[in-house]
Amino acid sequence: MNSDNRKSTTVNFSRSIRHEEQSTYVEIPFEMPTRVEEITVSYKVNSHGGPKAVIDLGVRDQERVRGWSGGARTEFRLGLEKATPGYLPGPLTPGGWAVLHNAYKVPEEGCTVEVTITFYERTRRWLKGDLHTHSVNSDGKYTLEQNAAIMEQLGCDFIAMTDHNTSSQNRTYPRGTSVVMIPGYEFTTNFGHSNFLGVTDPLDEFRVASQDDVHARLGTARERGAKIVLNHPHCDFCPWEWDFQVDHDWVEVWNGPWSERNARTLRWWQEQLAGGRRLTAVGGSDVHSPDPYIKHAEPCTWVLAETKTVDDILDGIDAGHVSISCSPEGPFVELQCGNYTIGETVPKDERNRTIRLQANALRAGDRIKLIGNNGVVVDVAPETTDGTAELLADAEHLSFLRAEVWRPVRPGGGFVLAALTNPIYFNQ
Q1: CA-to-CA distance for 258 and 236, rounded, in angstroms?
Q2: Which NCBIfam families does UniProt cross-reference here (predicted)?
Q3: Residue 57 pairs with which residues in a beta bridge?
């Protein structure tokens, strides 16, 4: 599934530059539309005589110069959090902007500059990544640059590097990557682990000796703006043995390769949902080093977000817009009920209670389950020739409905989880 399906608009400008304008700065004004996530700017120069014209490139917003590459580049990108080196990411405020040119050398006959600007609109779409990884900043073997490069190769959009009891990784993230780097910190105690996401430095002191200390540390992270995840709470080696009533936002249902420890958390999560709690499930590889089984983005967490930024990705998770797959290749599962999707609540007066499931990257033998507050509602092995499937289910009288895909390990060898969605909820 392509995570970059943004709407875009392209405009072209042409500006003649006379020889008399040599050694001056020329502006090509343009209007920045509303709701823009990123722009790309490219240009070419047509000389009308010799010697060849030399025209430099930059851009300004309403308040300042936002970037300058001189004659080193013929194009650049400028986004909310990422930009081509030499350019400053940040707000793309609607209004009057301008492409900047320095008419360094202009032939006697002059030249023409042709500029192309593409505006990429904020478009709600599914982004994919890994919310639990480690690096050389704690007990991992990968550098930050290696982690980012691997995620790029996998076609992923984001990564959280959640090193144990340190925030040093959040201060040295590589800048020249297309992958969004979510600040992370794994609060690691002798009786359970928790991820803090979204802030550079969530704690000054990680050491705890009591439940009160744990509450205090979580309180500090919360005050500083972190989102809190209970990690692998039913793990065999490092389960969450503190009180489950601690402050937290999400639970890591799927940690690394599918195993019984994950199955225990899945059952616990289902109990929470059936009891009326709307708790978002996430996944994370917990990758530390090269390993034949524990790999980046396995599982892969998909988030429905409006922009490819830290804030919008975390907001999407907070809204429950999360689907999880065993790898970045899928299978990917989406649920719809009319205009409502995963994580959203169908109002009581909405008569349409039919859920539509759409799945892709399925394999032969995969089983799809739809699960509500009373257990399994649908359990089928869809026939598919292209890896896609679509199912309809009646959610009448249910408080929620979610989906799972189970994949056969080998003939007669049982099944492992291949995909999982958060629920669509229903007000009764």
Answers
A1: 13
A2: CehA_McbA_metalo
A3: 70
How many domains does the chain divide into?
A: 2
Backbone angles phi, psi at 141, to 5 degrees: -105, -15
3 state SS of 152: helix
Number of Cβ atoms within 10 Å of the Cβ of 353: 17
Q: Please state the pTM of the whole predicted model.
A: 0.95
CA-nearest of 220, 217, 335, 342 to 278 is: 342
Q: Are 53 and 176 in the same domain? A: no
Q: What residues contact residue 169 under an 8 Å CB cut-off, 6+ apart?
A: 135, 137, 144, 161, 163, 184
Residue 182 near residue 196, CB atoms below 8 Å? no
Query: Which is it for strands 75-79 and 227-230: parallel, antiparallel or unpaired?
Result: unpaired
Domain that holds residue 367: 125-426
Digit-coded pLDDT (tens) for 99-154: 999 999 999 999 999 999 999 999 999 999 999 999 999 999 999 999 999 999 99
Cβ(285)–Cβ(130) below 8 Å: yes
Contacts 24+ apart (CB under 8 A), 59-68: 59/87, 59/97, 59/98, 59/99, 59/100, 60/27, 60/97, 60/98, 60/100, 61/32, 61/93, 61/95, 61/97, 62/93, 62/95, 62/96, 62/97, 65/100, 66/90, 68/100
398's CB contacts (< 8 A; 6+ apart) are: 353, 372, 373, 374, 377, 426
Write the CB contacts of 201 (distance below 8 Å, at least 6 apart in sequence): 167, 170, 224
149-182 pLDDT per residue, tens: 999 999 999 999 999 999 999 999 998 899 999 9
Looking at the fold, whether 78 and 162 belong to one and the same domain comes out as: no
The residue out of 91, 121, 151 marking a domain boundary is 121
Residue 45 phi, psi dihedral angles, 5° rounding:
-120, 125
Examine the domain organization and report whether 143 and 52 are in the same domain: no
> Which of 117, 100, 122 is closest to 40 using CA atoms?
117
Sorted by sequence, the CB contacts under 8 Å of residue 294 that are 6+ apart come out as 256, 257, 285, 286, 287, 288
